[in-house]
Amino acid sequence: xxxxxxxxxxxxxxxxxxxxxxxxxxxxxxxxxxxxxxxxxxxxxxxxxxxxxxxxxxxxxxxxxxxxxxxxxxxxxxxxxxxxxxxxxxxxxxxxxxxxxxxxxxxxxxxxxxxxxxxxxxxxxxxxxxxxxxxxxxxxxxxxxxxxxxxxxxxxxxxxxxxxxxxxxxxxxxxxxxxxxxxxxxxxxxxxxxxxxxxxxxxxxxxxxxxxxxxxxxxxxxxxxxxxxxxxxxxxxxxxxxxxxxxxxxxxxxxxxxxxxxxxxxxxxxxxxxxxx
Amino acid sequence: xxxxxxxxxxxxxxxxxxxxxxxxxxxxxxxxxxxxxxxxxxxxxxxxxxxxxxxxxxxxxxxxxxxxxxxxxxxxxxxxxxxxxxxxxxxxxxxxxxxxxxxxxxxxxxxxxxxxxxxxxxxxxxxxxxxxxxxxxxxxxxxxxxxxxxxxxxxxxxxxxxxxxxxxxxxxxxxxxxxxxxxxxxxxxxxxxxxxxxxxxxxxxxxxxxxxxxxxxxxxxxxxxxxxxxxxxxxxxxxxxxxxxxxxxxxxxxxxxxxxxxxxxxxxxxxxxxxxxxxxxxxxxxxxxxxxxx
Lengths: 277, 294
What we know:
The structure holds two protein chains of two kinds. Chain A is α/β, with parallel strands linked by helices. Chain A has helices at residues 40-47, 70-75, 90-97, 106-115, 129-142, 159-172, 210-216, 225-230, 257-266, 268-276; strands at residues 2-11, 14-24, 28-33, 55-60, 76-79, 147-151, 178-183, 195-200, 203-209, 217-222, 233-237, 240-246. A six-stranded mixed beta sheet of chain A has the order 5-6-7-3-8-9, sandwiched between helices. Chain A has a three-stranded antiparallel beta sheet with strand order 2-1-4, covered by helices on one side. Chain A has a three-stranded antiparallel beta sheet with strand order 10-12-11. In chain A, β6, α6 (159-172) and β7 (178-183) form a beta-alpha-beta unit. In chain A, α4 packs antiparallel against α5 (129-142) and α9 (257-266) packs across α10 (268-276). Chain B has a three-stranded antiparallel beta sheet with strand order 1-2-5, with no helix packed on it. In chain B, α1 (7-46) packs parallel to α4, α2 packs parallel to α5 (167-190) and α5 crosses α6 (195-221).
């Protein structure tokens, strides 16, 4: 569905990507993780056709994003971190903005907006940043675009809204959609994403499905100093030592996304050696 | 699905633009009407004895059209100067051509019609009022045998005063306006920030370059003489050497030579000067919009 080959991109003379390649398939929610300034937003904007690659190729559903053809824009919806919504009532949004998306579903939109506890008769002008973002997310989901790109979608959302967001997103995925969520707040995406892609210094550092991670790695709290020493990554906490170790017994453990992220950034080689084995 | 232009999609874009901007446009029209009213009242107060004449109406209409039209044109793509608004604008599922046409519809056609209607909405009653004031003033002060000449509502698209000869000038003013406004439309896509000022500076620099090029470079290359009735004919003066070693230049119909380019070149140049600037700048704006990155 999305094929990125040998992507090169630079802001003036500051290179961001130098040969990034990535394949994304429908029916998945991809978590794009990385430190600030590693190019997560830049990658999404390249995919949305808002930035053009210097070299390499991006193809989304057979379209070249650079051309920004109407058929492409109907199928790719982006929720940017810095977004703009006109100061109009929600009904105006449905009447004047929704018709651009042939698969837009008004009932779905109203359901998502209601799930986010926003009155349907309200106006965007009177809404907070978080509320506007929830409307935009609802609109993006209801547009039924095949590709949904979300840049830090949980920024600006309160604790309850983050939980609502996870609930809404989990119910929105189907086998024809591909959702890419970029964030540095990895905790917000736990139990939501099914594939994790970590970018660092313009390259893909790690790219695995959650299933594969659960099969190969074990996440637990340990008090055994020997076990801690042998762990792929460990971190002391009040509850004991949070460790990641190879899952040799085939046991099931709860994926700790934040711990995994830190392990890959700090101790990438040892984590990757498990997946190569 | 046609990826370049579909009437239904374009109409949706026009309707969306109106739904998001109608408050702003309504307020702008009210402000413009207020300014016109204040100006006419000022003109009335300054000259009570005479009705508002053709010249005042002419200058007011075209000064306002040029100033407000170019200011508005330089804001037509202001969304592109903001990251969030720009992304929202470029991501709307419509082609670049449809987006440009929508902008031209509001910025060129709708603005021109609204401004003209607004002008007459203020101008007509103000001319009537000034006639009444001037007439009452004339009744008190007129000399026996003199007649009162009432002012008329000027048709800004035909002629000024009595002259049918001036009709063409208005037409040229309008063409010049659309050409200049199109440059500001291009400027609003090209310059992300301060597009009005940057466009003004760019136009000044281009004009200066043109004057310098014609005055210094072109004139130096040409034989001694001057352009004759336009820029496609050149009159070469007669130059002869004097006994003292200096040169004597004489100019008369017998000794001078006239070098003219073929008449079609003049026709093409006149056509470009009259009609081509606006479409050229609109086309440039289209390509700039297509390659816009945010």
